[in-house]
Amino acid sequence: MQFCLCFVSLALQGRYCQEIGIDANRVAHMYFFNGLASAIFRAVTGRLCDIKRNIPIWIMRLTVLVSGTLVILMTLLSSYEQLLACFVVYGMTDGAFASSMNISVLSTLSMKQKSQGIGFFHLCIAITLVAGPPFGGFLADLFGSYNPAFYVAGSVQILAAGILFLTHCTKHGDTIAVTGIQAEIIDKKITVLTLKYTQTLTD
């Protein structure tokens, strides 16, 4: 759900700013600082996730909630400085979410599963990421304004954050069920048991 419309604001932000009278050069600066903030916070988040095991899921919850709120808030801002600040913070949440998400996915896979698992995961989310911006453009054309597209995108992200926060109510919501190391150990134990069972049958 988060991936369906998370890129709508990035794809439509430039046209939206031009619609409210912000110069194209300034819009380019906004994208530059957005990307810079995203890159920095990917590294910072990776370091934070090294410190404590349960941090990735909380980072995902908070960043999805904040990013959804920011997307809706953008429609209420009109000055370049306000939109720049909002867009930079959005880049920070994007970078933090990306790192924490990848770490969460990789930590649930064994060493044998990592290469195929992470590749298949990104294949799945790529399909939804590609579909999001065209749908946002369709909404903008349908209503004659970019605001509805931002409202829908922000609302979906807030709903996705709500679902992530609901996992906190489950028994193991804040723990990773099986870490990569644990999964690898389990794989080895299963292999050993299988070999012993096969040897017993042959004997």
Keywords:
203 residues, mainly alpha, 83% helix
Polypeptide structure, described:
The protein has 203 residues and is mostly helical. The protein has helices at residues 2-5, 8-19, 24-51, 55-74, 80-107, 111-143, 147-166, 180-202. The protein is globular.
The overall pLDDT, averaged over residues, is 80
Q: Name the overall outline.
A: globular
Report the biggest beta sheet as strand number plus sense, adding barrel if it closes.
none
Class from helix and strand fractions: mainly alpha
How many DSSP-defined strands?
A: 0
Unreliable residue runs: 173-183
CA radius of gyration is 21 Å
Indicate the topology:
Elements: H1 2-5, H2 8-19, H3 24-51, H4 55-74, H5 80-107, H6 111-143, H7 147-166, H8 180-202
Helix pairs in contact: 2-3, 2-6, 3-5, 4-5, 4-7, 6-7
Quick description:
The protein is mainly alpha-helical. The chain contains eight helices and no strands.
